[in-house]
Design a protein that fits this description.
Elements (H helix, E strand, L loop, with lengths): L24 E16 L17 H4 L3 E12 L8 E6 L3 H14 L9 H9 L6 E12 L5 E13 L2
Antiparallel strand pairs: 1-2, 1-4, 2-3, 4-5
């Protein structure tokens, strides 16, 4: 039986606009979406307190292209939070690759030799039945889009475990 993780299963009247982060602890998660986003480093700051100012390091990095992963997880098998979405952004590097390896081991869904990491993550997100794993979800302090303090959840793939 597949679960609907799109917009069709939600009634906005049931949504609490003041919803708080989930409590810290281990949750059963499933990857429901993986997206690669690309960016190019500009010669001026595009946002923040230095918006419009030239970057000090612009001569060495302007035009450099990079990418990052946006991962979307759904909590499953939880009496209160099943279906709740959690998000994680990862940039390429040793720590990210190690975290993704921990998730791969925990889902027990091996990456094929012919796959790139984005292809592997897309395949795992599309599995039916879904690949699930346990991970620790903690809270971290951050800022909302307006710069106001906000507490958010963080998925800790370092502690990913087999369900």
């Amino acid at each position: 039986m597949s679960q609907d993780f799109g917009f069709n299963h939600v009634n906005l009247k049931d949504i609490d606009p003041n919803r708080k982060p989930v409590e810290e602890g281990f949750y059963t998660l499933q990857l429901v979406k993986s997206e690669v986003r690309e960016y190019e480093i500009a010669d001026t700051y595009k946002s923040g307190p230095k918006e419009g100012e030239p970057r000090e390091d612009a001569t060495s990095v302007t035009g450099v292209k990079g990418s990052f992963l946006n991962l979307q997880f759904a909590i499953s098998d939880h009496p209160e939070h099943s279906g709740r979405r959690l998000f994680l952004t990862l940039f390429p590097g040793d720590n990210t690759f190690k975290q993704l390896r921990k998730m791969m081991d925990a889902t027990q869904e091996e990456m094929l030799d012919s796959e790139t990491i984005p292809q592997y993550l897309e395949r795992v997100a599309d599995l039916n039945p879904p690949a699930t794993f346990k991970a620790f979800v903690n809270k971290r302090e951050g800022k909302d889009r307006d710069g106001n303090p906000e507490t958010k959840n963080n998925v800790n793939l370092w502690q990913a475990q087999v369900v």
